[in-house]
């Protein structure tokens, strides 16, 4: 794979890349739709991601090429950098612009990107490409940013330069991810704990429903609003800042304050999901994958019935998973309404799982999902093997 990328680099730039960087994609293992309620999320880096091969040039230009997209570009170092339509290289240009605006001294670069993450499926190829670019620039030009600076800078690029209003979880996970660790993270305080998550003889199956996530944004805003309504109602009697400041027991005692049944159901999900994250961290660090799997199914059911952000495609994947004894648990991951589901599947049973879920899903939905086998991988870094170009 990497030797092949060096070949591509030579073909395009007529010289070898002097360095290669890698940044993963991510999945959220559990803790869905609670980051904006002061809750805990639990993402991990996956073993798919984005590669950046690069070498400096003396031409005062940034050259952009991606093996995943046809557009390529050459942008002068001194130019005023603005977002150009929807082209992919807005992401690295945004990162470069951030460095320049911070007064960092850059030099021209010849860059080649390649991603083996499914793009636009909720596995955060966008955070991956931002963070790999930021990490590489920081390293090549000794810009002196900490890893957390790079995370914040990348999020700011996505929010302000690209114009996508994402939280910090994605950039955080792809930067701070560690092999066999899940990151239990509070997205407000950025307090986090790396939780030992040895999957043993299981792997993480990622099932892309291949359904465009059309509804996600409007429904997301609706849920944020509903959570604010629930919080305001509870505040009549409770001194809290977020729904996740209370546990299930306290919620049960006070839920009557929320008069709208739908809004009450939304809050019930939020509070219980936050409790589940804490239980999941315990289960994972105790190697209790059966319990973790149970929590995954419970999370999905809550997102489906109480929070109503699933859909027939994601439900079909989870419904099938429940019939397969080699699956410990499964759930939708990400905002919902499409995108990906994850399942904890015995390694030796993955091929059968993949075939069966594909058949079951295709039969019900009318088109096939894409199924990937992943492990919990490392966060962003430089790949230090010398790439021979062979
Ligand atoms: P997601 O983050 O869920 O994968 P987004 O729509 O947020 O989806 O981000 C996808 C965009 O990120 C792509 O359309 C492209 O502009 C950029 N991108 C991701 N990976 C690559 C890559 N390997 N090469 C070039 N651009 C990429
Ligand atoms: Mg994205």
From TrEMBL:
Q: Which InterPro entries match?
A: Galactokinase (IPR000705), Galactokinase_bac (IPR022963), Galactokinase_CS (IPR019741), GalKase_N (IPR019539), GHMP_kinase_C_dom (IPR013750), GHMP_kinase_C_sf (IPR036554), GHMP_kinase_N_dom (IPR006204), GHMP_knse_ATP-bd_CS (IPR006203)
Domain of life per record: Bacteria
Question: GO molecular function of the protein, one example?
Answer: ATP binding
Q: Which reactions appear under catalytic activity for this entry?
A: alpha-D-galactose + ATP = alpha-D-galactose 1-phosphate + ADP + H(+)
Q: Which UniProt keywords apply?
A: ATP-binding, Carbohydrate metabolism, Cytoplasm, Galactose metabolism, Kinase, Magnesium, Metal-binding, Nucleotide-binding, Transferase
For the site labelled Transition state stabilizer, the residues are 26
Q: Which E.C. number(s) belong to this protein?
A: 2.7.1.6
Output the Pfam families linked to this UniProt entry. Answer: GalKase_gal_bdg, GHMP_kinases_C, GHMP_kinases_N
Q: Where does ATP bind?
A: 66, 120-126
Q: Which residues bind substrate?
A: 32-35, 220
Where is the GHMP kinase N-terminal domain positioned along the sequence?
90-177
Q: Where in the cell?
A: Cytoplasm
Which sites are catalytic? Answer: 170
Question: Where does this protein hold Mg(2+)?
Answer: 126, 158
Q: What does this protein do?
A: Catalyzes the transfer of the gamma-phosphate of ATP to D-galactose to form alpha-D-galactose-1-phosphate (Gal-1-P).
Q: Which HAMAP family match?
A: Galactokinase
Taking every annotated instance into account, which residue ranges of this chain make up the domain GHMP kinase C-terminal? Answer: 280-362
User: Any one cellular component term from GO for this entry?
Assistant: cytosol
The biological processes this protein is annotated with in GO are: galactose metabolic process
Q: What name does this protein carry?
A: Galactokinase
Known PANTHER family for this protein? GALACTOKINASE-RELATED, MEVALONATE KINASE/GALACTOKINASE
> Pathway listed for it?
Carbohydrate metabolism; galactose metabolism
Family statement drawn from the similarity comment of this UniProt entry = Belongs to the GHMP kinase family. GalK subfamily.
Q: Does the keyword tRNA-binding apply?
A: no
- Stretches assigned to the Galactokinase N-terminal domain: 7-56
